[in-house]
Design a protein that fits this description.
alpha/beta; Rossmann fold; 3 domains; 3-stranded parallel sheet; 11 strands; globular
Length: 365
């Protein structure tokens, strides 16, 4: 039985109107709709399953992407910068010197996640994105946010696991979503290769006990299980703040850090790096007295954190070499140049490399 016979008979009757253009146009539309397969949306579309197990319907082509937070912005920028509609927050002044001017000049659209969540549904709609992407922890609160924003805005919202070990998987997933599988495969291969190389060389190395000092005073740190401290374990270190429990970020005191007695302190902010070497409380700590305080480079994005995204790849390699120099002879100059050109779309100048690597070596463990 021809299931489209009724539609064909309607087509023949409508065509009998001969020279009436409006009716002929209506006939064409009617028969086109009649031939659409059951369950198939007119105009196409596709479905993906994100890292939270949510089934999200996406348009066939994605040209504009709203990053829910800084980790997503970095991942999108490194993969497909022309599709990023804007930055979640203003770039640091020095960051703009390390990326092409057309991308540094993208507008600040606000963020949906974190304590600085300045963007609401209205801000998202004003940016006219095809989809929203969030990268990071896949926790119930972020799933709930994704569901709410997607419902209120009508824009597909995808969650991608941003853990460091899954960086390659994150690229492959995002590459399929954005229609950039070849570029994603290149970056995923680089990520897998770098992490495997570091872990292989540190397989028999004794771990170093480390403290990450965030902020100008260095008294915010990442707890055990935090995405913000993942680089430590991969680089052959143990997070001393695990003694305070698991979670995300927490405030501590100098006395607490002293009780943990880290072998090395990693400063993420230059102000804390300076304070740690001059403040009497910090100078009383063994790591500071032994000049084992490291300042992580942070342009255009942090090498260890801030944000916890693909920018941590070069940081893991740097930190592993600083903590275990016997396993990583030589400097990072060629690797840093290649990483910046490959991921940030702009090779640093020799002066910029000098600045980055001076920061990376100005304190010796």
């Amino acid at each position: 039985m021809n299931r489209n016979a009724p539609a064909m008979r309607r087509w023949q009757r409508l065509c009998s109107f001969g020279r009436r253009p409006a009716l002929r146009l209506f006939a064409l539309l009617a028969i086109a709709l009649a031939w659409v397969a059951p369950g198939q949306a007119v105009g196409g579309g596709r479905s993906v399953t994100d890292s939270a197990g949510r089934h999200v319907e996406l348009p066939d082509t994605v040209k504009r992407v709203f990053a829910a937070g800084p980790p997503a912005a970095v991942l999108i920028y490194t993969l497909a910068p022309d599709k990023l509609v804007g930055w979640p927050r203003k770039l640091a002044p020095e960051a703009a010197d390390y990326i092409p001017v057309e991308y540094a000049a993208l507008p600040v659209v606000g963020r949906l996640t974190g304590h600085e969540n300045a963007a609401g549904v209205a801000a998202v709609l004003a940016a006219h994105p095809d989809i929203i992407v969030d990268v990071g922890d896949v926790e119930p609160e972020y799933v709930e946010l994704a569901e709410r924003v997607q419902k209120e805005s009508g824009i597909p919202y995808v969650l991608i696991d941003g853990s460091l070990a899954k960086t390659a998987d994150s690229y492959r997933a995002l590459g399929e979503i954005l229609g950039e599988p070849a570029r994603a495969a290149e970056l995923a291969g680089y990520a897998d290769g770098l992490l495997s190389d570091v872990q292989g060389k540190l397989a028999s190395a004794a771990p170093v006990r480390a403290y990450i000092g965030r902020g100008k005073d260095g008294l915010e740190t990442a707890l055990a299980g935090s995405i913000n401290a993942e680089a430590l374990a991969v680089a052959g270190a143990v997070n001393v703040a695990a003694a305070a429990g698991s979670g995300e970020l927490t405030k501590v005191t100098v006395a607490q850090v002293g009780a943990w007695n880290p072998d090395v302190i990693i400063a993420l902010d230059p102000a804390f790096f300076a304070a740690a070497t001059t403040d009497p409380q910090w100078r009383a700590l063994g790591a500071v007295a032994a000049h084992r305080v490291l300042l992580a480079p942070a342009a255009p994005f942090g090498w260890i954190d801030s944000p916890p995204s693909a920018n941590r790849l070069i940081g893991v390699r740097w930190l592993a070499a600083r903590l275990h120099p016997e396993a990583f002879p030589g400097d990072l100059r060629d690797m840093a140049r290649d990483f910046y050109a490959r991921f940030y779309h702009r090779a640093p100048s020799e002066t910029q490399l000098d600045a980055l690597l001076h920061v990376a070596t100005q304190a010796s463990p």
